[in-house]
Amino acid sequence: MAAVDGDLSQSLKAMREAMMKSADFDAAVFIGGMEGILNEHAMFIELHPQAKRLPVAVTGGASRILSKNLHYPPRRRRPPRFRPTFPSRIVHLAT
Asked: What is the pTM (predicted TM-score) of this model?
């Protein structure tokens, strides 16, 4: 893939097309980002309409927007509380 002389927007579009046409994808993960993620998401839907799309909202940016637009559940306000696993329990479980 060659860059499009003097046109960043067209160069990015060419790069994204080459990337997304390189395989028959089953899914895509969208993390963070700005408008580029939204462009990639739109292109991905066009090229792979049956594939799953997984935006990671906790990273913010465009991925959070995608998550909201795709009606994913809102992120948790607090992380879940995990009970500590003590080394003695780990040894017990391993034997």
From this structure: 0.67
